[in-house]
C-alpha cells in the first residue's frame, strides 16, 4: 500500500505488519472534530522553525494548517535538555512535529480557543506527550516520515 497526502507526496510503501490506518492515527496530517461546533477540522503539518530567529523566543515553533488557517504550537527548547537528562537521548524534529500535532488534537478535542494562532506547551507536557507519541509509534511499527514540502 502506498501512503500519500493531498499534496501528492508519496511516503512510500508502509512497512509490513503496519496497520492500514497508520497515516490517519499519527499527527502530521489528521482530522479531528471541534468540541463546540462539531466541525471536522483537517490539521496538516506545514513546518518547524526555531523561534529565536522569528520572535526571539527560546522555543521551536511547529506550524499546522487547521482547515487552511495557520496554527502554531511552541515547544520550549528546555524540553530537549530535560529529555537528554532524563534518557540520555534527544528527540528529533520529526518527533517534535508529532508531539505538537498530538497536543493540537488534544486542544481541539478539549475546546480550544480557535481565535488564537499560537499555543505554548510546558516542558512537562512536551515530555508527557513525547512518551505517548513514542508508545503509539511503537504500536504501529515505526514513526511516520514528514512530507517534503516544496
Could you characterize the architecture of this molecule?
- The protein is α+β, with helices and mostly antiparallel strands and 150 residues long.
- The chain has one domain: Roll (pyruvate carboxylase f1077a mutant fold).
- The chain has 5 helices and 7 strands.
- A hairpin with a 5-residue loop joins strand 1 and strand 2.
- It is globular, with a radius of gyration of 15 Å.
- The N terminus is likely disordered.
Q: Any descriptors?
A:
150 residues; alpha+beta; two-stranded antiparallel ribbon; 5 helices; 28% strand; disordered N terminus
Quick structural overview:
With 150 residues, the protein is an alpha+beta fold. It has helices spanning 22-25, 51-55, 78-87, 93-110, 123-140, and strands at residues 2-4, 10-13, 29-33, 40-50, 59-66, 69-76, 118-120.
Order of helices and strands: EEHEEHEEHHEH
Number of strands: 7
Reported by name, the CATH topology is pyruvate carboxylase f1077a mutant fold
Strand content: 25-35%
Task: Give the integer mean of the pLDDT values.
Answer: 81
End-to-end distance: 24 Å
Describe the biggest sheet?
Answer: 5 strands, mixed
How many domains? The number is 1
Amino acid at each position: 500500500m502506498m501512503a500519500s497526502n493531498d499534496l501528492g507526496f508519496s511516503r512510500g510503501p508502509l512497512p509490513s505488519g503496519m496497520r492500514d490506518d497508520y497515516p490517519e492515527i499519527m499527527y502530521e496530517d489528521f482530522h479531528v472534530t471541534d468540541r463546540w461546533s462539531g466541525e471536522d477540522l483537517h490539521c496538516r503539518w506545514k513546518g518547524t522553525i526555531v523561534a529565536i530567529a522569528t520572535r526571539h523566543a527560546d522555543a521551536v515553533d511547529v506550524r499546522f494548517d487547521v482547515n487552511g488557517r495557520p496554527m502554531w504550537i511552541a515547544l520550549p527548547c528546555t524540553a530537549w535538555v530535560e529529555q537528554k537528562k532524563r534518557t540520555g537521548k534527544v528527540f528529533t524534529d520529526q518527533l517534535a512535529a508529532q508531539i505538537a500535532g498530538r497536543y493540537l488534537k488534544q486542544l481541539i478535542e478539549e475546546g480550544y480557543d480557535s481565535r488564537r494562532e499560537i499555543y505554548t506547551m510546558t516542558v512537562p507536557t512536551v515530555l508527557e506527550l513525547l512518551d505517548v507519541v513514542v508508545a503509539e509509534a511503537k504500536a504501529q511499527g515505526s514513526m511516520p516520515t514528514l512530507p517534503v514540502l516544496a
